[in-house]
Amino acid sequence: MSRRVALVTGGARGIGLGIARALATDGWDLALVGRRSEAEAQPALDGLSGTGAGVRYFQCDLAGDADRRRLVDDLRKCYPSVHLLINNAGVAPSVRADILEADEESFDRLIDTNLRGPYFLTQAVARWMLEADAPGRAIVFITSVSAEAASTNRGDYCISKAGLSMAARLWAVRLAPHGVPVYEVRPGVIATDMTAGVRAKYDAMLADGLALQARWGLPDDVGKVVAALARGDLPYSTGAIIPVDGGMMVPRL
Ligand SMILES: NC(=O)c1ccc[n+]([C@@H]2O[C@H](COP(=O)([O-])OP(=O)(O)OC[C@H]3O[C@@H](n4cnc5c(N)ncnc54)[C@H](OP(=O)(O)O)[C@@H]3O)[C@@H](O)[C@H]2O)c1
């Protein structure tokens, strides 16, 4: 029997790599997508292959329509079907700028990468998924606490993630009749390259009670949650928003 294939965008680094590790351990084959060359991603790919998973890497700028179309064509040449799509790839603004100052170039880059890319990749992959009635299919969107928390020094990021949260809901509604559950996973502050530049700031905020669990989140914390969703361990929860934020967003008085 052929093994099931998980498509993980941004799967060779950071949170995506944590997700890929958890899925590989659970017996999934992996199709990973990133902007970097395959040579740059090779150490991560070697580590994942060591689990026995079949791993393929696809270099693609998900913000570009033509690149995305080429990606889906290439995937179709390699696999009869994809069972799981994890929309994880994303970017933060290069400069955190107050919304009175922030420019439109950064806004466009974040919307194209964090929202337009995953929204239309999901459309293409969902069409492909629906060509066959395979059991165990699912789609996951990695959004952020920024889908809800307003940060005036990165409005573009917050808007992209709020939009992505609605995308997850829309696809959950649209694909439910076809038996494809769609989930939103909302990380808090996770130790990756994306947050390396603000490490000291969040060290202090975590020490000061930012989250109920006073530590940084790890890519593997997100990976474990996604693996549970992929196994079907939340069988009656399509459309759910699952926080992985150490309790950061629990309202307190
Ligand atoms: N870290 C956090 O605290 C945090 C919190 C909440 C949500 N998130 C979200 O979690 C996701 C992963 O973040 P991370 O912290 O792991 O970030 P990261 O370490 O910077 O990794 C980002 C990943 O996305 C890929 N990527 C970015 N733009 C892409 C594009 N245009 N086309 C294809 N791939 C692209 C990168 O590929 P390359 O490696 O090839 O560049 C990389 O693999 C993002 O959506 C982020 O917004 C992160």
| Sheet with the most strands, sense and barrel status | 7 strands, parallel
Determine Rg (CA atoms, Å). Answer: 17 Å
> What name does the CATH topology carry?
Rossmann fold
Strand order of the largest sheet: 3-2-1-4-5-6-7
Shape descriptor reads globular
> Please, how many domains?
1
Straight-line N-to-C gap = 54 Å
**Which sequence of SSEs, written as H and E, runs from N to C?**
EHEHEHEHEHEHHE
Rounded mean pLDDT score: 97
What is the count of DSSP helices, taking H or I runs of 4+ residues?
7
**How many individual β-strands?**
7
Helix content: 40-55%
Helix/strand class: alpha/beta
Question: What's the name of the CATH homologous superfamily?
Answer: NAD(P)-binding Rossmann-like Domain
The CATH first-level class comes to: Alpha Beta
- Enumerate the spans where pLDDT stays under 50 for 5 or more consecutive residues: none
Strand content: 5-15%
CATH architecture: 3-Layer(aba) Sandwich
Question: Which molecules are bound besides the chains?
Answer: NADP nicotinamide-adenine-dinucleotide phosphate
